[in-house]
């Protein structure tokens, strides 16, 4: 078992979830209430879903390079490189997982009738109170779905991470990449153990989603 | 703020009160997207019914009063306070307007119990006091014992009561009811209407009831305001509107059938209403029209008197006309009779008890005579 790879994967998954949670809430809510130019933004958010991971990874790698737009800015700010660093794969992971975080939350917000928000305002609740006390509890199952999908998908992401991060031990080598390395070096037993672990985690997350969304009454997967 | 006590008449004083005092006065105008030309007032403790067909702007008006919909021009004043004044670019937020809004689908918060739905609207800092208040409101709408139920676990009627309790728990300055009885069955509707009639006796704020059900509106409201295409056409007590609609259009919107066209003539040495071969006496209003002028007239069905066969009486000398029964619909104890006349396509409709219809051997195709009571004939100018 490659414990450092497991640790990188978990760190990446938790980091991605934590950052995408507020982003998903904000963007999902905006998209759900948007009338104009909604299709364009939805398509942009969904793009990582349909792009081949190697293609997306290639473009991210270009952008993250020292002379690329993002990488150059990052270098001028910190003096370090984005490519082949944990920060780099975290950024890449945020892009890749955007649709998984946004879409379930957006569906959940769409299912909250506009009159409920209006009723809350009429009851004297400010927009902020309305969000915390009415909207957020009602989109809870969507948020759980988003987090679970993002978490599971980050653990399994391979192509993009490999393109951007390579396989640096303890820095960018995730569990999925470690499995590939093991197979390459004919260590099928090690690959098998790690695959079984990933399978278990994936099954658990999806089980949690279905369990919770059943309790919440609605499913947004 | 305003000089008081200088009104010239009691009527003016009341008007003054509605405009500057406790009541609600509304004037909203815009060309689009939803056209509006609405002017009405509602006094403290008064229940005003906004009636009109679907798409007449009733709900839009309620939403504008609540601050949920923006309107291009006009004003909304309530309780001596300006809520909206387009000329000054002034508009209070929904939260600041203090309204109780009962939505058509009730819009209860599905994740909160009945108590918490009401509790959200109760103001105050002390949670225990607010909780007691919320429970008091729930028991006022007779929901004791159901405080912990989620909306899903309540019947339609119970949900409506929670919505009413929530709307009132805010101590609103105006109560807005948007089709509050449309989502429940007939039996529940009757009961809820009765409860609202009792509840409103204890309320001293203006109340607006939007409904497309004329029967409901006239049973519950002190005054009705007829809307069409966002325009307020006529306001008055249900009795006034049903007996004297201003125009044929209003009569039609109020589902009044007996609207006819006629002409003013000089006959028998006095001014009469010419309708086909008949020269009808009219108690009021003919003096305002010149001979030769054409107009519309309306007669409430209650003021059509059937002549009993072979038993003439004095009343029969009043505007007797003869028609053929085109249709007779028996609805329980009441028979609705439609008379056709030789001189025009317009039909006259009235109701008598079913046993009276049997006694007089009324049937389709029979020719009968009726009197049109002169006191009830209501004249309307040709335009409009």
Automatic annotation (TrEMBL), chain A:
It holds the Pfam family BPD_transp_1. Residues 6-210 form the ABC transmembrane type-1 domain. This is Molybdenum transport system permease. Keywords: Cell inner membrane, Cell membrane, Membrane, Molybdenum, Transmembrane, Transmembrane helix, Transport. NCBIfam families: modB_ABC. It is found in: Cell inner membrane; Cell membrane. GO terms for cellular component: plasma membrane. Belongs to the binding-protein-dependent transport system permease family. CysTW subfamily. Part of the binding-protein-dependent transport system for molybdenum; probably responsible for the translocation of the substrate across the membrane. It comes from Onishia taeanensis. Gene3D superfamilies: MetI-like. InterPro entries: MetI-like, MetI-like_sf, ModB_ABC. PROSITE patterns: ABC_TM1 (PS50928). GO terms for molecular function: molybdate ion transmembrane transporter activity. It is a multi-pass membrane protein. The chain crosses the membrane at residues 6-27, 39-62, 82-102, 143-168, 194-212.
From TrEMBL, chain B:
InterPro entries: AAA+_ATPase (IPR003593), ABC_SmlMolc_Importer (IPR050093), ABC_transporter-like_ATP-bd (IPR003439), ABC_transporter-like_CS (IPR017871), Mo/tungstate-bd_C_term_dom (IPR008995), P-loop_NTPase (IPR027417), Transp-assoc_OB_typ2 (IPR013611). GO terms for cellular component: ATP-binding cassette (ABC) transporter complex. GO terms for molecular function: ATP binding; ATP hydrolysis activity; transmembrane transporter activity. Pfam families: ABC_tran (PF00005), TOBE_2 (PF08402). This is Molybdate transport system ATP-binding protein. Keywords: ATP-binding, Nucleotide-binding, Transport. Residues 19-254 form the ABC transporter domain.
